[in-house]
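sanity check this chain:
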Amino acid sequence: MKRIYLLVTLLLLSATTIIASDDNYDWIQTTLEITYAEDGTTEQSRIEISYDAEGRQVGYKQYSNGELIIEYRDYQYNGRTATYWYDYYSEGNLQWTLRNKTTYSERNWIQTTLGITYAEDGTTEQSRIETNYDTEGRQVGYKQYSNGELIIEYRDYQYNGRTATYWYDYYSGGNLQWTLKNKTTYSERNWIQTTLGITYAEDGTTEQSRIETSYDAEGRRVGYKQYSNGELIMEYRDYQYNGRIATYWYDYYSGGNLQWTLKNKTTYKEQSNNSVATNLLENSIFIYPNPANEELSIENDSFTIENVEIYDINGKTILSTNKPIINISHLLTGTYFVKIKTDNGELIKKIIKE
């Protein structure tokens, strides 16, 4: 159950920081998710998620056959860190309460850099997940601990365009048990939605599992297939969108035969005003030339630019200024990022130094 909590927490967090790039999270954050039985009307499970005005998650409830089984409550935010309590119920009775702490990346309110679960005393650490990202928001590291012991690590990330390859190490009793190779391809829209995920055996070539996800032009999910050893085991199909609500069918296969079909309904939260602000920044501030050799010019007609920073791919700040023309002749050839802080949010642009 604790592992389920951690996975759900990582998947169902919200985005608000105004950073203009290819990131767009409107169709990731859900407010309501219902699974119905095969008749399509009898509700089996329900998840309700609430957010504050900034888009930060402030509530979570999970029901099974109409009965509350999980609740996250009493959220407190201190900067990028949220603390809250996790209550687990059985047959209407509270079984246990755990304290949780989640730290979000500077980039958004979806990607997390640290997730800790404490025992009921609120201080004894039971589990920990540490995740690292580069300046583009791409995941470059992951470690999971249980009672202080490392049990999972993703390492040696290599990116080729939108595709990442890395190794997955599993430990038990402090000893490495097995190593799998993984390949993940991300959508053109952001570094969270994936279009292809493959896990290979230890030889790095034999495919063990595969997940294929497709999206429409708005970034809405319109298809999902999961395979095990080349055999289809799960498929989401026949997506229908009505405003912010998606309905679709969930088919489960075993031995090549359809075992059961469930109906699902997912409601996504309304597009945030931050997305609008991001688009305004993106369309009002221009950096040229790009690629550049000697100077960068920032053209801006709509906002007050408070500060401009250039940093390298490792996140190290190279220079800081508030001038519209920046001398970059001293920089080494390569990729950099320009962060422009305005009176209406921040904009990040990638530049190439020739």
Remarks:
- The longest helix spans residues 273-284.
